[in-house]
Amino acid sequence: MTQVQVEDPGLGVSLVASVTANPFHHEDAWWEDEYGGPMYEEKGKGVGLGTEEEDDSLTFDDLFNNLDDVEWKQYDPPVGLQWIAEADPDEVVRVIRDSVNRVRERIAQEQEEELRRVQEAAAELARLEIEQQQQVQQGQTVAADTVITTEQRAPTEPEDVCMKRAAPLPRTSTHRQPYVMPKRSLRKDIPAEIRSILSPDTGAKPKSKRNRSIFSLLWKSHGPDRPETSAAGAARSLLYRTDDVVLDPTLSARPEVKQKVEPVQVECVSCLDDFDSRDMIKAPCHHYCVDCFERLIGTACENEQQWPAKCCLNQIPDETITTVIRGELLEKWRNKGWEWGLPVSDRIYCSEANCSVWCRPHEINRAQNIATCRNRHRTCIICRGAEHGREACPQDRDLAQTNELAEEEGWKRCYGCNAFVEHREACQHMTCRCGAEFCYVCSARWRTCHCTMEQLAAVKAEADRRRMQREVREAEKEAELQEILRQIEEYEREIALKTELLRQEQERIAEERRQKELEQRIQREQARRQEVAIKFSGLREAFERLHDIQRSMVHDMHTQEDEQLTTDNAAKMEDLKERHAQERENLLATVEDKIKLQEAHVESEYAARLSDERQLEAQYTSQLKLYWAGKPNGQEQLESSLKDFQIKMDRGFKAWRKWMDTELATYSWQMREEQTIQSELMANAERRLHEANRATMTAYMQRRAGQLRWVDVVVKERAIMLREMEHAEIHNGGEDIDAWFAEATLSEESVAAATGAPFGSNPESDVARIADNDDEIGVALSPGAN
């Protein structure tokens, strides 16, 4: 391995280049810098070794010594500029915060002004370009008119019509060629044989290979081991196809000029074979051959999760499907469409365990709540179980509620049609609408009992008693509900009253608080004016000490960040390499385990299928024996039927085995492909990490210089703000006395009690008197003053 030391002229960092073999890209190079991280270079892109002198390279000191050249405005100020001590006054805190904000606002204004100037310059440049284009177009129009006039006056020579129309024209000519295809060269549209006949005097040149730019692009996109899409196959076929272009009626009259158009070959997206485009089925996204399309529809009919049939998540139209598939598959597709088109809750399946077929809507009798499948099994559509004969379904909630109401009302059932009958008047002899006659007291057939009118009256009296009890219960529930509502309304009224009283009390307390605060503001005014001069002299001394501390903090922060960034970059690269090594081992073990697990699953499924087929064959044999027992030629028919059944089972098993082998091979290939992809992703992650580390270090160096520039600018801004604050507080810092009385009402009695004289007798001395009587104002504002 060869190592070469290189100086990076852009960053001043020493690089050590070591050319080694990459496990994923054998032509790549790994670079290591003094921070311990690899610097990855792309394939085919060599890294030139620096040959400049060391004096020409930019170092850390050079960068920090030229702070005026750094674009410091794009960086945030250092955190140390906003550090404050716990004992610092509020003015210092406000200046520290506002100084940074004012610098940011000034930077934003400068950027807006610069953007406005750039936009104005761009608009002016666009206007000049438009004027120049208009002048050029006017000049071209004049030149074109001159060329047309000259060509019209040129003498014509007798030439062959074909030669005259097929020969290429000079670029300055404005004549149009007949039948020319748009956006295509006339010379390229003429076949080579015709060009050789029409231009015999042209020097013979070796036929160059056509530029296959489109095919090269498709080849790079897919590669030799990747499947080609239908669109790519069609483009490749059109690229190689020889066009049958006739540019002129005179040329079309010659039979040897015409060429036969070859059929277009289109690739099937499923089997990847090429077929004639006329034999392909066009799905919403791709093309399919007939066999693959039928398999796609068959797979969709096997699992509801894959229904309806789709191509790239786009549903295949029904018209396309019905024009291709035939026979049993078409019938199966239609049945599944009817079945799976209904919600799951609306489907009725046969209750027989060995049947379980879907009952179509026309096989359901809603009046009787019975569904009859195609095998004549009857299912209850309420409980989804077997039918209950003449009995009602136990889960029929409507019938249960009806029976409960009939019990309370004393209704009787007709023994003939099982309908409820209610007695209105007359005797106990009841005649149902079905013609049945029975006794209303005991429900027996008429004239088979000895019930009397007294018993009928007792039955009706009992029914009336139960009806009245039910009405009483309902009335009690309604009264209870009304009482609850009344109590709720009463409670809400009490809560509203208490809330209003509480609000009024809070308003009174707030008014008193505002009155006290207003009086306290009067007391603080004189004290504030006396403290202004002393405060600002102390602020200047405090800012001088603060700036020294903040500069030291910024320097310490930069030193610590430099060391931490270097350590973190090296640790990240080392951790990533170790993690990738472990991931590669785990990935290899996982792939092997998945492949073994898939093979075991195939074997278990094979055993289960073999057991099911044997059991099915035994059942079918027993059924055949029972059917052909005692019949003429029964043994021969039994053996023939059994042999046909075995042939059919063997054919299905072979198809299943072939499909399963294909699935297993595909799964293994996918696992290996996933392993390769993950390995490539790991290599790319290491390269990106190194590039990120290098970019982070460069950004840090520039940000450090910008932050030092920020410190100088902010210190100057604070000095300006301090002067402005002192001037404003001395001249305009006092509170507006008139505004105090506009904001809240201060009673004259309180002012008089605080100053010792009627308020308003001498307005110029009111404030002075308030300031000279702080003790008396404090007594007036005390809780016991009133």
UniProtKB/TrEMBL annotation:
Record keywords, A-Z: Coiled coil, Metal-binding, Repeat, Transferase, Ubl conjugation pathway, Zinc, Zinc-finger
Catalyzed chemical reaction(s): [E2 ubiquitin-conjugating enzyme]-S-ubiquitinyl-L-cysteine + [acceptor protein]-L-lysine = [E2 ubiquitin-conjugating enzyme]-L-cysteine + [acceptor protein]-N(6)-ubiquitinyl-L-lysine
Chain segments annotated as coiled-coil in the UniProt record: 93-138, 458-535
GO biological process assignments: protein ubiquitination
Record-linked Pfam families: IBR
Ranges where the RING-type domain occurs: 264-455
Gene3D superfamilies: 1.20.120.1750
UniProt protein name: RBR-type E3 ubiquitin transferase
